Amino acid sequence: MEIIKTILDYNNFQKSLNKKTIGFVPTMGYIHDGHLKLVKESLSNNDVTIVSIFVNPTQFGKNEDYHNYPRNIDKDIALLKEVGSTALFIPTVSEMYPNNQTTLLNINVETSFTNKLCGKYRPGHFEGVATIIMKLFSIIKADNAYFGLKDYQQFILIKNLAQSFFTTTKIIGIPTMRGENGLALSSRNSYLTEKEQLLASEIYKNLLIISEFIKINKQINSMSLKKKYNSLLKIASKALQLQYLEIYDAELNSINEYQINKTFIGTAVYLNNVRLIDNLLF
Ligand code: AMP
Question: Which residue owns the Cα nearest ligand 1 atom 22?
């Protein structure tokens, strides 16, 4: 596996590929089986697979975990090598934002998108995501890029981003990989003890209960569903603090009625200061 640290080196690497198809998996590292699922999908559908690891400072809020975000580059390299990735792109912050230009030029995301789900609670987050993904797309020039549906709002954002900027990279969504107890795999799970991870699996279990309830009742009353979900979490543990539970269609537009396979529930829950997100499309 090639390890590439600069844009110049990537450009030279890409020239040597001689027009092979490129699959791209952008990550923030601390690689787990969820990331590897994306990498495997890319490997089986492209000649070469480029993974990037970049903890992007502009998508973290002031009081968020940018500095503490879990990092273990040696382990990441070993895992990505083992699965057969062709190259790993690990740029520095100054490579991606030359001359400290983290704020000079950013992509703006309209408020109708950022006033819901994570956007509402993480001001500036999706602008940071859109900006870094556009920069990475410009560098990597991939045929296909793979994103997890675990970050569903991010996935929709990137699909729109690619369309808005006439990107030729095709955006592919991959279903969420879960642990045995249903907890969505996430680098942030490393902040939790084993016991807490078991507790965190209630987030998914109770999303399933709410989805069954919606399927039966058909009508969607967001306020009462949020209350119901909150009380289910509270029965499991007082430590599970609901931030939001919101319901939309698959494109994240408002809905009042259940639509088969096009109904989306997204949630964010704090467990002892660790913020966890999950969702269902059903
Ligand atoms: P991150 O490193 O958390 O930014 O994630 C990098 C990519 O992996 C994103 O497209 C995520 O949506 C995706 N991803 C993270 N966790 C999972 C998971 N449990 N299952 C599938 N994809 C995931």
Answer: 148
